Amino acid sequence: MKLLRILSGVMLGLILLAGCGVSAAQLDTPDTTSATGAQAAALPNGRTELLGSLETTLEDLYARVNPAVVHIAVTQSTTQATAGGLPQELQQFGFQIPGLEGGQQLPQQQSQSLGSGFVWDTAGHIVTNHHVIANASTINVTFSDGATYPATVVGSDDNSDLAVLKIDAPEDKLQPISMGDSTSIKVGQLAVAIGNPFGLDNTMTVGFISALGRTLPVESASTAGGSYTIPDIIQTDAPINPGNSGGVLLNASGEVIGVTSAIESPVRASVGIGFAIPANVVQKVVTALISSGHYEHPWLGMSGTTLTTQLAQAMDLPDDQQGVLVVEVQSNSPADKAELHGSDREATIEGQQVPVGGDVITAINDTPIKRFEDLTSYLAQQTQVGDTLKLTILRDGQSIVTDVTLAARPTQK
User: Fold this and answer.
1) Is 106 a member of any domain?
2) Taking the model in full, what pTM does it have?
3) Same domain, 254 and 329
4) Catalytic residue status for 366
5) Which of the following is catalytic: 131, 158, 237, 303?
6) pLDDT in tens, 123-147
7) DSSP string spanning 340-382?
8) Residues 272 and 302 in one domain
9) DSSP character for 198?
10) How many domains does the chain have?
């Protein structure tokens, strides 16, 4: 909070200076003939002090946190199956490699990728993104002083894009970063990212929290017949680039409020829209990965969408009705066992055929559900496998209550 007050003071000083409409030369020349001139002359010094305090605070934050942020280098081995001795993309040219005829395999090829991570505890656990270490054959973790240690995977969860590694390092190398409460952050607050963009180790960038409650699609769904999103994603304009993945997003106190994971960019470089997995989700998933090697996501077993005004009108509901329309219920899922009804017809909205007519979830355990994001956020933040929830739903215009017991999200066989 100290840093936010400093930053606010800097901004206020800049606004006051802009409003004065005076030149730098005027400000640098003390006016000893009037009190107004003396106050104007004092503004640059005050601004300098505020900027100096801001710089000092950021320097201290970096010095304290940077030793716990690591560079992760991953080697991946790939083997290409061949038909007639060549990779598929070269077969069209009719070439053959002697000794590899008849659908044999080419020798393994090595590829490398880079990412970031941070120290979780003094036992040597390192947190990063799942996509950073997926399919890794070797993993090396490098600290800011250049010390490098081989790492093994303790557990990884593609549905939250989080992974935990383990290294054997001296205790003085293991300086865990404090975790913050991601539910308490607000748009406009300071955000500091530290990671290794493009392999440039120990890079700090500064910005603000741009938005909250975003969702990220899971890159590779781990279940057949379903696609999922990571809820409560933090959006920031602190520059994030490839290589930042698995690094930290910090608040003004130097606490982790998120794990930087993705950017929205047509050129794979920062355009001021970066995303971080919230600290509260990280806490739950990482704790489970360390204890058991995997994380069980609470699963309802339905697909749905936010009820819009057009959907409500198509279902003869009030225009201002809010909730989540149940589009499809997966067979033998908790939602199926609770006898939730999916959409049973289609309507034309803005020239598109869309499903309508299913149940509308309006509350979970008396907590209002207004958007689909509210549903996914509640399940991720407030529930665990085996919990029985009370769902309030609208069916044919009537409000009813039904119980549903959450199961573990099924994994791909």
Assistant:
1) no
2) 0.77
3) no
4) no
5) 131
6) 999 999 999 999 999 999 999 999 9
7) -----EEEEETTEEEEE-S-EEEEETTEE--SHHHHHHHHHHH
8) no
9) G
10) 3
Confirm whether 161 is a catalytic residue.
yes
Residues of the domain holding 54: 2-66
Token readout for 92 is 């069209």
Query: 150-197: per-residue pLDDT in tens?
Result: 999 999 999 999 999 999 999 999 999 999 999 999 999 999 999 999
* Catalytic position from the list 182, 245, 270, 303: 245
Helix axes 2-20, 35-65, angle to 10 degrees: 150
Set 161, 201, 237, 374: catalytic member: 161
pLDDT of residue 87: 47
Would 102 be classed as within a structural domain? no
Residue 319 lies in a domain: yes
3-state class (DSSP) for residue 333? coil
Kindly state the average pLDDT of the residues 43-47: 63
Question: Maximum CA pair distance of the chain?
Answer: 97
* Domain containing residue 369: CATH number: 2.30.42.10
- Whether 237 and 329 map to the same domain: the answer is no
Question: Would residue 71 show up in a list of annotated catalytic residues for this protein?
Answer: no
220 and 247, same domain (yes or no)? yes
The C-alpha atoms of residue 65 and residue 193 are separated, in whole angstroms, by 11
Predicted confidence at residue 86, as pLDDT, reads 45
Q: Which of 232, 261, 292 is the last residue of a domain?
A: 292
